[in-house]
Amino acid sequence: MNIFKQLRSSRLACTRVCTSYKASFSFFNFSSDASIQVHSQEQEVVIALGSNVGDRLNNFNEALRQIKKSGIEITRHACLYETEPAYVTDQPLFLNSAIRGITKLGPHELLSVLKKIEKEMGRVKGIRYGPRPIDLDILFYGKYRINSEILTVPHERIFERPFVMAPLVDLLGLDVDHDTVAYWHSFSKGGLFKSWKELGGESLIGKDGLRRVLPVNNRLWDWSKKTSVMGILNLTPDSFSDGGKFDSVGSAVSRVRTMISEGVDIIDLGAQSTRPMATKISVEEELDRLIPVVQKILELPEIEGKLISIDTFYSQVALEAVNKGAHIINDVSGGNLDSDMYRVVANLDVPYITMHMRGDPSTMQNIENLKYDDVCKQVGDELYERVSAAELSGVPAWRIILDPGIGFSKKTEDNLEILMGLKRIRSEIGRKSLGVSRAPLLVGPSRKRFLGEICGRASAVERGPGTVAAVTCAVLGGANVVRVHNVGDNVDAVKVCDSMLDRVERS
């Protein structure tokens, strides 16, 4: 019971904090007319979000903007859930999530700010639990229980609502990061994880009107339903496998048509090689290669329902491509090679693939970047650091896709460890953030050098069978997206794996 050991050790500190506030109010028996003018200490809070009227996702985005403008620093985002309405069932489906944040506002000041945001966004008084464009509730405020005429914290009925508990648990890690979180666990008999498990826990996801989703291209993608196949289209003269094959608009469009006929779900366009020791090109050259192809592809009738991903580490390329109609940004650097990437992606409101890589393509295979004591743990830790930085810049966790970076700053044995240890990587991330650990996982082993070393295939184009084997391992190990050159063969492999996993789940 690590949570409660930590809770006991923090009681003295809590007593000192409570004492410092007693001059202005008592948190444990809070009256609505208490003085709340002076607050010298920041408090960590949890705020739940819900919407089922109008453009629900836009409502969330606007609410987050208003929350930040009010001086609340958002530090973590839960996953995004589409849920059936509770209590009053004759109304549209909800989107639900939650955030953790830091504020100096007193609890009633915070409540007033949230109610003002609700009103400005069009919420009016109506039936309780009825439709609303936005619903903002304080679930936790610091370490304190609050009971006044207008505010109850922890929020009433919190522990009986899966649509509240699911995003709340997302905001936690299996490790308690500080004593405030230990107090949150103490508000529930046996801890929040036990309360969530008693409700049904992860077994509820995908069932009983509780879907975990990722917003993309004006729809909500439930990535648990099937493994998606991402087809690689390199618009480069120097990529390790197919450089120069598709560097004209006509050949690129023809390749896209072939991938669509083979069953591709996502087409990943890259106009800059990221092979080891690749020469970096300018933003302008990358855009010159990329944008004409994006425009032509989006004119194809058969592209309907498919997603366009842009493989770039330049924020300006990401911005231009999304403005031209691309749906996803795939950044091999995880934001390390362009300091503006997180800010740009945060404003674009598109999914962001965060890949693990040390250094850059010219240095990633240096000796110092290949040193691991425990590759799955370190990849998980370093991936989480990038996601955390993205979140602090305004990229919600519900728009993150994780990629452990097969072949990038990895040796052959490291790549094998990762393929066999995807669940371990998730669990390491989950020690810090369960929500981030539940993000879609992309794995890209296609034609990589380690397959050639194992199979004795010097030529990348001969590594198709090895790729199918690696993809099979990845899907059975928990990958949600696989990135490949040979779409047709791997679509079949994925279908077989999904059928096997479906039988296991039903048994």
Describe this structure in words.
This protein has 507 residues and is α/β, with parallel strands linked by helices. It has 18 helices and 17 strands. The strands form three sheets. The chain has an eight-stranded parallel β-sheet. Helix 1 (2-9) crosses helix 6 (179-186) and helix 10 packs parallel to helix 11 (341-348). The protein is globular, with a radius of gyration of 24 Å. Residues 10-39 have low confidence and may be disordered.
Mean pLDDT: 90
Class inferred from helices and paired strands: alpha/beta
| Beta-strand fraction estimate | 15-25%
Basic shape: globular
**How far apart, in Å, are the first and last alpha carbons?**
32 Å
Low-confidence stretches: 10-39
Number of helices: 18
Rg estimate, integer Å: 24 Å
What is the percent of helical residues? 25-40%
| Main pleated sheet | 8 strands, parallel
Question: How many beta-strand runs?
Answer: 17
Q: Strands of the biggest beta sheet: in what spatial order?
A: 15-14-13-12-11-10-17-16
